[in-house]
Write a structure and sequence with these properties.
mainly alpha
């Protein structure tokens, strides 16, 4: 019975993994779509600020320039910290591999297989929970406000 349940779990996880694979063209299209949405949101935010604060044309230009400057600084900081993030990820991966080897020494083969299956199931649950949280953050009504 346990083997049947484990087999079903592995088949289910395998089908989810296969369904999640995307092509480079899909990723590129999604990236372009996200950039377009971000630009639209920036424009809407600027228009809302102009309306709420009663900004004149000069102020709008200055605020837009300030936002662009801040965005460039954030992008530079992100690029600067990329190496540190990658080093941290490699360190975590090495620790995970070491823990896996240590657990393999401690547990019997059946216990080790069950431990790995449980760990993968928990990771899938976390992944789905994060996906659900992303879905909850999306606004229900994406209609654009009237800008005058």
């Amino acid at each position: 019975m346990k083997k049947l349940v484990l087999a079903i779990v592995f088949i289910g996880m395998g089908s989810f993994a296969m369904a999640q694979q995307t092509t480079p063209q899909d990723r590129e299209a999604k990236r372009a779509e996200m950039q377009q949405k971000m630009q639209q949101k920036e424009q809407e935010h600027l228009a809302q600020m102009q309306k709420d604060l009663n900004l004149n044309a000069s102020q709008v230009t200055q605020v837009k320039a300030l936002h662009e400057k801040r965005k460039a600084e954030m992008k530079a900081d992100f690029a600067k910290n990329k190496e540190a993030r990658q080093a941290k990820m490699e360190e975590m991966k090495a620790k995970r591999t070491q823990m896996d080897a240590d657990m393999k020494k401690i547990l019997t083969p059946e216990q080790y297989d069950k431990w790995q299956a449980d760990r993968k199931a928990k990771m899938e649950q976390k992944r789905m929970a994060m996906k659900d949280r992303k879905m909850m953050k999306k606004p229900m009504n994406t209609a654009t406000p009237d800008v005058k």
